[in-house]
Design brief:
It is built from 24 helices and 16 strands. Helices cover 41% and strands 15% of the residues. A hairpin with a 2-residue loop joins strand 3 and strand 4. The protein is an alpha/beta fold.
Length: 504
């Protein structure tokens, strides 16, 4: 009997994994659905005795079984894309059944939680601080400092909230983990709850992830007794990008409009329902079990670059030959990531720009590709790492159009709470169009933007409009309540300054 392993990840399913699985079953094979290896260009990827074939269709099954398939890739664990990684958060990717408690325990599952429960909460917090773990969803704030604040905050009720509203373009690591290794996220939340005194937790998932939602709900039901006294619930968002910001997310959880809150107070002191609340994203929480394993904090802190400790699951997307999930310690250069690991563009044309950090990330020019993947190094260049999404563009990309899209995106997704974001993004889209000499608005792209009686005048010179756009970006950056308005200037100014010819 031939034993076949095929991913049940959403991307694999979209590429036809179900049909391939049925074809193997029809051929008399036993099929086991497992998590994804993260090599997206090879999906549906099939594994038999450690050897891989992909991408496959139902018509390829016979050739695989009789040994004549030209789609063999050899031993999957030896593939260059996998072999050069150092997987900690995604150590089980491709190797375990997502909802198998047996598989999870056999691969080190619950060891971190068991050890955490043998320690006082304050010591757990100090180990997380010592590991150097920083939030993997945005500005990279130290996770342990946030936990320490919640632990020390007065209050009978405390909460732990997982931000799984993965909305950045080119990002999918949260989805892969929730669909492929949901117990790791749950274990991380249970450790956070023990460390801070929380008894209730919520996982806020975007509605566009139905497979992840189903996996999480089933996983919680399976391990409820293991994580007790923590009670976990999955809550589904309604698609607002701004709900990826923690205070807007908390408002949504409370049944209110997804609108940013002013700070202070910080959520760690007055968060969900006015109580001290830990808010971390999926990758942050899923890294915690490894850190709490014996010797984990020191081993984790030994990896990385500068103050950026541990590993980062980087998502390679856009116009790239080998797109997928690549986990590696901080410090690898962008050139190595996109040219060597990613294989350059899928189109075969030269790379024009790379955007790191989602739609609010700066565009990076090829001359800066030696930039190490590091929070501080990116901040010094006016860029951000964010959730670790890397989106590649070839030389057909129009950076003026991309800059205008950033403003239009901000205008469409703004919660409306603060003026710099609500009005500034509208003004920015108008200014870029005038700088480029468009004169009239493009109805297919900006018809939803509100018309203002004092819109920028066509009589201004190009140089005056450029100066006005730069001033506007400075105002948005410094005065917006959250990162939506505050980071929108990053893609706009990076495009304007590095590709000025695209604004002619």
């Amino acid at each position: 009997m031939t034993f076949v392993r095929i991913s049940d990840d959403a991307l694999a399913i979209a590429c036809g994994a179900k049909e391939v699985a049925r074809a193997f079953e029809a051929a008399g094979c036993t099929v086991e659905r497992v998590s994804s290896w993260g090599m997206h260009w090879l999906e549906p990827l099939v594994e038999i005795d450690g050897l891989g074939w992909g991408p496959l269709g139902p018509g390829d099954v016979a050739a695989v079984l009789d040994g004549t398939s030209a789609k063999a890739i050899g031993r999957i664990s030896d593939h260059p894309f996998i072999a050069r990684q150092q997987r900690l958060t995604f150590a089980r990717a491709g190797r375990t059944r997502p909802l198998s408690l047996e598989d999870y325990a056999a691969t080190g599952g619950w060891e971190g939680l068991n050890r955490a429960r043998s320690l006082p909460p304050a010591q757990v917090v100090e180990e997380v601080i010592a590991s150097g773990l920083r939030g993997r969803g945005g500005a990279g704030f130290p996770a342990g400092i946030k936990w320490r604040t919640v632990l020390g905050a007065p209050g009978e009720r405390k909460y732990v909230v997982c931000n799984a509203d993965e909305g950045d373009s080119g990002t999918f690591a949260d989805r892969i983990l929730m669909e492929g290794d949901p117990f790791a996220l749950i274990e991380g939340m249970a450790i956070a709850a023990h460390a801070t005194g929380a008894k209730q937790g919520y996982i806020y998932v975007r509605s566009e992830y139905p497979h992840a939602i189903a996996k999480l709900e089933r996983a919680i039901a399976l391990c409820g007794g293991i994580i007790s006294p923590l009670s976990l619930e999955v809550r589904v968002g309604a698609g607002a990008y701004v709900c990826g910001e923690e205070t807007s997310l908390l408002n949504s959880l409370e049944g209110k409009r997804g609108e940013v809150r002013a700070k202070p107070p910080l959520p760690a002191l007055e968060g969900l329902f006015g109580c001290p609340t830990v808010v971390n994203n999926v990758l942050t929480l899923a890294a915690v079990p490894q850190i709490l394993s014996t010797g984990g904090a020191g081993d984790y802190a030994a990896l990385g670059h500068g103050r950026s400790k541990g590993t980062m699951p980087i998502q390679l997307a856009g116009n790239i030959r080998y797109g997928g999930l690549f986990e590696v310690p901080f410090g690898m250069s962008l050139r190595e990531l996109v040219e060597e690991v990613g294989g350059g563009t899928a189109s075969g044309r030269p790379i024009k720009a790379v955007q790191v950090g989602g739609p609010l990330g700066a565009y990076i020019h090829p001359r800066d590709f030696d930039l190490p993947f590091d929070y501080e190094a990116y901040a010094e260049r006016g860029a951000l790492i964010g959730h670790g999404g890397v989106t590649v563009f070839d030389d057909h990309a129009d950076m003026g159009t991309m800059a205008q899209f950033a403003m239009e995106f901000c205008a469409a997704e703004s919660c409306g709470k603060c003026t710099p974001c609500r009005i500034g993004a509208v003004r920015g889209a108008e200014l870029i169009e005038r700088i480029r000499g468009g004169g009239s608005r493009s109805p297919d792209r900006v018809e939803a933007l509100p018309q203002m009686h004092n819109a920028p005048k066509q009589s201004r010179s190009r140089e005056e409009n450029v100066a006005l756009l730069e001033d506007l970006c400075e105002t948005m950056r410094d005065a917006s309540l959250c990162a939506l308005g505050g980071f929108t200037p990053f893609p706009v100014l990076s495009a304007l300054r590095q590709w000025p010819e695209d604004f002619e």
